[in-house]
Amino acid sequence: MSELDVVTAVREACVAADGQDPLDEHAVLRLKHAGLEGAGLWVEEQGFALVRDGDLTLAVSPDARGRGVGGRLLGLASDSEHPLDRAWSHGDHPAAVRLAQRDGWARTRELWVMRRPTADPLPPLDLPDGVRVRGYREGDAADLLAINAAAFAHHPEQGGMDAAELAERMAEPWYDPEGLLIAVDADVAEGGMLGFHWTKQHDATTGEVYVVAVGPQAQGRGLGRVLTLAGLHHLAATGVAEVILYVESDNTPARELYASSGFAHAASDTHVQYTR
Q1: pLDDT tens digit sequence for 176-197
Q2: Pairing between strand 54-60 and 84-90?
């Protein structure tokens, strides 16, 4: 079994047991498109540690937990030449808490998953005067990237998306241009982009509020709420039973917006970032 085969097998075992993939989307795409270039990977038969750009992903198959596999892998990664600054625990796993406490990592960031059943009725979508919403079109990329960069300037992962990363995401099987909703100025001939809501359908039962962003020039017009609602209507029409989203735990305005739209958070739906 190759090292990457071990990664795949451990990921699948973790998803089956924990309901969480130890690799987030960004790490998955980098592994898919860049392989191990610039990364460090250490494996045991039922565990792996992957380091790229200072980020650590460490996972151990459920059958091998409690045998010191995680500690050994963390030691190998820590002693390597690769910078190691941050680590994610998807689902706030207790083993990650123990390793962090043992090795002096600090709990510095929490990312919440919030959920909303589509069976709950949605209010009608009333667009503000001078605004229309349409699907993504060829030629929208530059404006979308500019709005994304401005809206997520302080977001460690999302804000740095460039044209190549956008193309990678659009090449994924789930991508649907009609699910990338663009708010434009109806009074401008070319329909200047005001914001967007990128929805994602994971499978037949689950959709996601993937990215919502409003341009600086359009702030204060309630477009975040409008775009969120437009995306929820779109996802409900696909037939999914539930819609999820990810939000920083300290982003109170966003959390309140989503709560007012029927989303709720459970403690087990928490991803934790540790730093050294």
Answers
A1: 999 999 999 987 756 689 999 9
A2: parallel
Tokens of 116: 């909303």
Spatial distance between the Cα atoms of 99 and 135, rounded to a whole number of angstroms:
45
Token pair 């699907």 in the structure block, residue: 135
Proportion of the chain above pLDDT 70, given as a percent: 98
Pair (10, 44) in one structural domain:
yes
Give the C-alpha separation, 55 to 75, whole Å: 15
Structural tokens at position 205:
């039962």
Q: What is the mean pLDDT of the chain?
A: 92
Q: What is the DSSP string of 114-173?
A: EEEETTS------PPTTEEEEE--TT-HHHHHHHHHHHTTT-TTGGG--HHHHHHHHTST
Q: Are 49 and 180 found together in one domain?
A: no
Q: Which domain holds residue 53?
A: 3-104
- Give the integer Cα–Cα distance in Å for 34 and 30: 5
Contact 177, 137 (CB under 8 A): yes
Last residue of a domain, one of 77, 104, 131: 104
Is a pLDDT exceeding 90 seen at residue 212? yes
**Tally of domains within the chain:** 2
Orientation of helix 141-151 relative to helix 163-170, angle to 10°:
110
DSSP 8-state assignment for residue 263: -
Per-state percent for the chain, helix, strand, coil, to nearest 5: 35, 30, 30
CB 77 within 8 A of CB 86: no
Q: Are residues 51 and 142 in the same domain?
A: no
Domain harbouring 93, CATH code: 3.40.630.30
Cα–Cα distance, 165 to 33 (Å, whole number): 10
Nearest C-alpha neighbor of 239 from the set 125, 118, 120: 118
- pLDDT, position 156: 65
Is 171 domain-assigned?
A: yes
Please provide residue 163's backbone torsions phi and psi, each rounded to the nearest 5 degrees. -60, -40
